[in-house]
């Protein structure tokens, strides 16, 4: 009678024993969006992405400065010399005499590039001082002002092509920054669900250990009463041992996944993380046509394709410009003078003009010019074919991701319902086993289905949210708010 009373008491305490055994230590509660925000703000990858963006900005500033006036100061201060040199005498003979002098030069130049022609105009002011220490003489020579033009003719115009290509590079870098941020979101999502699944497995293992331990205690009483076979008792004992091993492995997996997430996100504290299962799923259904349109408008690929075509076209122009008739025009007009004092240079200076036209043209090159041009043209065709294939692959990737997103979204509801049913079925099977109406085999089947359903639900959430941020990365579009993604520094 006493054993029967103890058996009934254990049955009544079964839910309490299970709850007490699976209590989890408190930790920092985090949800998915918070982890993504931390990763995009403080992770090592985020800092690399931000640095790349700043590098692109300063490269853009450097390009812009090429088209603005440039002011430079050049000089030689001093150029002193003391030596013995041959000096021609009035009668034609040579005498070696000591010579001690100093030459000093200073020039200020303001230049401006001419983008459409590839040339430049400049204004220069030069001053030269000569000191003869042997004769105690000082002379000045200079150009108060010189206006000049440097203009290549028929040559490749690097400035004009840069005006077409560099703005595309900068715009491409801005979109690449957004894409890299979304890549961080995708990776953070994967690590988040790796840890969440590990914690769910740890929770499952802890509950299974508690339940199996309680069932084993009840089974011992049933066995002593002759209501359970030795085989079933041993099977329950084996289930306890396996549950204990599973809990140890699940705990190790959770620790490993937690360390991986913390390392990626940039969390240096030792606080234990407790992740929340995302409950709210966006109600948006993505249309393939809209996703494709937004991808073409927002992604860097559209700019990248245009830039690469222009670069290939510029290489053709360079091949033709560098291998044909090349000529350079150099013209100056200014004032010049000399004197014993530097002020004499600015007193009634004389005019100074200069024009020089140089050219080069291959006469016999054994087909070298034609070969270089042909290679550049074929490379241009290859880029066109390559970009055509890449564009088709990109569109296919977007459409595939849209289909995957919509499919995974509908799967969540099914796996959630299956999880609830499997949990309820196991509780019923457990209670039915206690009263001896089902076998241990049926109980184990219900246990396995419960665990499998729970893991399937978490896996469905992981696949959905990964697809969600993959789609954002592929389109740079927020389908929840129905607007393109913007740089954080630009505001929402």
Describe it for me?
The two termini are 73 Å apart. The model is unreliable at 1-24 (pLDDT under 50). Helix 5 runs antiparallel to helix 10 and helix 9 runs antiparallel to helix 10. This protein folds into two domains: 2-64 and 161-315 and 371-490, Outer membrane efflux proteins (OEP); 69-114 and 119-156 and 326-361, no CATH class. The strands form three sheets. Strands 2, 3, 4, 5, 6, 8 and 9 form a seven-stranded antiparallel sheet that branches. A two-stranded parallel sheet has the order 1-7. Helices cover 59% and strands 21% of the residues. Strand 3 and strand 4 form a beta hairpin. It is α+β, with helices and mostly antiparallel strands and 492 residues long.
Write the layout of secondary structure elements.
Elements: H1 2-12, H2 14-21, E1 28-30, H3 32-42, H4 44-65, E2 70-76, E3 80-88, E4 94-114, E5 119-132, E6 137-153, H5 158-224, H6 230-265, E7 273-275, H7 288-298, H8 300-322, E8 326-339, E9 350-360, H9 368-434, H10 440-475, E10 477-478, E11 483-484
Parallel strand pairs: 1-7
Antiparallel strand pairs: 2-4, 3-4, 4-5, 5-6, 6-8, 8-9, 10-11
Give the key terms.
disordered N terminus, alpha+beta, 10 helices, seven-stranded antiparallel β-sheet, Outer membrane efflux proteins (OEP), 492 residues, 11 strands, two-stranded parallel ribbon, elongated
């Amino acid at each position: 009678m006493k054993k029967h009373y103890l058996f009934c008491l254990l049955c009544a305490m079964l839910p309490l024993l299970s709850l007490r055994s699976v209590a989890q230590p408190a930790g920092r509660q985090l949800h998915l969006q918070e982890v993504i925000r931390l990763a995009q703000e403080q992770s090592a990858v985020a800092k690399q992405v931000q640095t790349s963006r700043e590098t692109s900005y300063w490269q853009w500033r450097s390009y812009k400065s090429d088209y603005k006036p440039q002011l430079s100061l050049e000089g030689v201060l001093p150029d002193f010399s003391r030596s013995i040199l041959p000096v021609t005498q009035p009668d034609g003979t040579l005498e070696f005499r000591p010579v001690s002098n100093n030459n000093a030069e200073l020039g200020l130049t303001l230049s401006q590039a001419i983008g459409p022609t590839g040339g430049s105009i400049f204004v220069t002011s030069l001053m030269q001082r000569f000191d003869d220490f042997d004769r105690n003489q000082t002379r000045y020579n200079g150009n108060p002002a010189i206006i000049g033009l440097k203009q290549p003719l028929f040559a490749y115009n690097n400035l004009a092509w840069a005006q077409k290509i560099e703005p595309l590079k900068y715009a491409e870098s801005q979109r690449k920054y957004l894409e890299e941020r979304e890549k961080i979101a995708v990776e953070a999502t994967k690590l988040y669900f790796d840890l969440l699944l590990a914690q769910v497995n740890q929770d499952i293992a802890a509950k299974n250990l508690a339940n199996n331990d309680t069932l084993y205690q009840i089974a011992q009483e049933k066995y002593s009463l002759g209501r359970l076979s030795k085989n079933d008792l041993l099977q329950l004992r084996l289930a306890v041992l396996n549950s204990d091993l599973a809990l140890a492995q699940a705990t190790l997996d959770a620790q490993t996944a937690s360390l991986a997430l913390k390392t990626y996100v940039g969390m240096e504290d030792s606080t234990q993380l407790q992740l929340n299962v995302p409950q709210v799923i966006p109600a948006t259904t993505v249309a393939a046509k809209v996703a494709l349109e937004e991808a073409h408008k927002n992604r860097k690929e559209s700019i990248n394709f245009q830039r690469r075509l222009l670069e290939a076209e510029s290489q053709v122009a360079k091949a033709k410009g560098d291998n044909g008739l090349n000529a350079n025009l150099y013209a100056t007009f200014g004032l010049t003078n000399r004197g014993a004092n530097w002020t004499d240079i600015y007193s009634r200076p004389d005019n100074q003009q200069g024009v020089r036209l140089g050219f080069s043209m291959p006469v016999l090159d054994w087909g070298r010019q034609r070969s270089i041009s042909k290679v550049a043209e074929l490379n241009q065709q290859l880029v066109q074919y390559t970009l055509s294939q890449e564009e088709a692959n990109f569109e296919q990737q977007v459409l595939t991701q849209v289909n995957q997103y919509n499919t995974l979204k509908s799967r969540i509801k099914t796996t959630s319902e299956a999880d609830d049913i499997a949990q309820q079925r196991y509780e019923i099977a457990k209670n039915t086993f206690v009263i001896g109406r089902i076998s241990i085999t049926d109980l184990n089947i219900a246990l396995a289905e419960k665990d499998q359903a729970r893991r399937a639900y978490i896996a469905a959430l992981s696949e959905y949210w990964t697809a969600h941020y993959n789609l954002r990365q592929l389109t740079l579009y927020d389908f929840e708010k129905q607007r393109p993604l913007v740089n954080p520094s630009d505001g929402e």
